[in-house]
Amino acid sequence: MSTLLDIENLWVRFPTRNGIFDAVRGVSFSLGRERLGIVGESGSGKSMTGRAILRLIRHPGIVEADHINLHGENLLAKSERDMRKVRGEQISMVMQDPKFSLNPVMTIGDQLIEAHRLHAKATKAEARKKALEMLEAVSIRDPERVMGAYPHEMSGGMGQRIMIAMMLIPNPEILIADEPTSALDVSVQGQVLSIMDRLVKERGMGLIFISHDLNLVSQFCDRVLIMYAGRIVEVCDANRLHEAQHPYTRGLLGSLPRFDAPRPRLEVLQRDPSWRDAPSVEGRT
Amino acid sequence: MNAALEINALNVYFGDHGALVHAVKSASLTVAKGASFGLVGESGSGKSTILKAITGLAPQWNGEIKVEGRPLGAKRDRNFYKTVQMVFQDPYASLHPRQSVDQVLSETLYLHGFRDIDDRVNQLLQDVGLGPAFRFRYPHQLSGGQRQRVAIARALAPQPDILLLDEPTSALDVSVQAEILNLLSDLRAAHGLTFVMVSHDLAVVAHMCDQAAVMQHGEILEVLSIDAMRAGQTAHPYTRTLLDASANRVA
What are the ABC transporter domain coordinates in residue numbering (chain A) (predicted)? Predict the structure, then answer.
């Protein structure tokens, strides 16, 4: 499998009053044309890893790595100006809540058209056609009406599909999805995931899928990285997640209520301080 | 009369004449004393609205709501809030950011006419598994799970018989969710509480409840026992879809 992205020894640090806080501590992994899941609890550094790839960590946060190579080119060596070309065109990101990532005072059509014209030298009419096409690609039934609507007129599921449409307009090679379905209902979740799945397959994209939902990741991804306290504690094939060995992964799986196997009490995760200090597992294929 | 909660032909509306939304349409259900009842459905199906109508947070309703045999009027009195308390979804939003845990619990206790506040605050904290060290902390000094414990302690302060739980764990990590669900089960056993729980997660409802109502577009489609749900004995096709969407998950 060809490697799109290769990350070596990534650290994300935040200086605080009480010294430096390491949110991500020396993570290495690679991404091919596959669906890579990153799971962990809140605070495990999974979102920070996703943001660090696009260099979206704000000052005073510090991103350090031996390299973050996209097709062999180190993103960390790029100027902010060059980075802006990478964002969107080569790597796109879908955030958790569509309510906060769409502009509330612009119509959806205008936002999609703007996104397209920023990346391609297109006329307004061409951009409009492209926007309609993308809305259709994410299974929006009435694209003409949606183009003229404002984000608050959309449901959560539609908002998230619009976000995905916007991210796909410049045709990126890598899509980073940070909890893209957490704000959605189970039934809508399925729709959004199958759309993402289809697009990834059709376009041969690489997908980094960040989620706290183990069930979802085990169904949807090819490979899973499990993060704890800023490190990767385990890497496994998604369909064998239930055979995971690390006590942390086992604990997370055990704490899930199961529909088919009722039991009087749920297991509570007992954290072992040694998990923090164990070296990070390398997530390469 | 051993029903803790009885709802007959409940309608709830939002908005006014121009844009009236009929959020709950003629819903009826009965929750036995000491039972744990679940409400499931997608967002916008009206499950939280039923809880809101019970507590008086959705004033435009008609129909009949009976709590322990007594029908509710337009206003809720203090006695009602001594019987029914609610725990909200987001512990980050439901606690006052500038009030310490002590203030939150003391005020609630004072308003409900208790005067041995000091002992009761300590007892409440102990009940929800937080030590006395948490008493003078502010919400930002607590994790999501600890905040939800404080919210549960606040709901328990007036010694209610019925707890309305509106997605109590959906803002929490799975490991923390397990702790809170265990805590709720323990509290139900210890205080003989009746639960009405709203959740979009069928596995959580199946774990916590013995009976559930399935809702869609403001209507209760069917009320069935969790055992029937597990066995796949559903009367309505929508329940089937909901089951399929949640049950084909491997843990």
Answer: 5-254
Instruction: Tell me whether residue A99 is in a domain.
Output: no
A243: left (phi over 0), alpha (psi -120 to 50) or beta: alpha
Give me the residue from B144, B175, B247 closest to A259, CB to CB: B247
CA A200, A215, A27, A11 torsion-angle sign:
positive
Q: CA-nearest residue of chain B to A242?
A: B251
Dihedral sign computed on CA atoms, order B225, B228, B233, B237: positive
Residue B132 belongs to domain with CATH number: 3.40.50.300
**Closest in A186, A257, A265 to B206, CB measured:** A257
pLDDT in tens, A24-40: 999 999 999 999 999 98
CB contact under 8 A, B207 and A190: no
Of A165, A163, A172, A120, nearest in space to A4 by CA = A172
How near does any CA of chain B get to the CA of A182, in Å? 10
pTM strictly above 0.80:
yes
Alpha-carbon distance B196 to B49, whole Å? 13
Chain B residues in contact with A156 by the CB 8 A cut-off are 43
Residue-range definition of the domain harbouring residue B109: 3-247
